Fold:
Amino acid sequence: QVQLVESGGGLVQAGDSLRLSCAASGGTFSSYGMGWFRQAPGKEREFVAAISWTGDTMYYADSVLGRFTVSRDNAKNTVYLQMNSLKPEDTAVYYCAARYRRDREYSDWGQGTQVTVSS
Structure:
């Protein structure tokens, strides 16, 4: 089990960039695949991006492909989400999540960080 704390959210204008961070503690970070999800008001939570526990495979939702980049720094126990060319439809609470190695489900979640993109 790991504890996750997101940071880096804020209010930006369309076209701006933000970098979200998710700091992990309490587990062997390098053994966890990490994911980013988001939930907009009135909508279900959706997948945004993920990086494998080995760090060599990344996955992206079609809506963010080419604009967002997920990365990890195992020395800092941190996963990042670089968000470029932000759009108003990217407005949501962003959550990071962890799953152990090849587990199918994410077992640990952060509290979320708000990202608001104005037009």
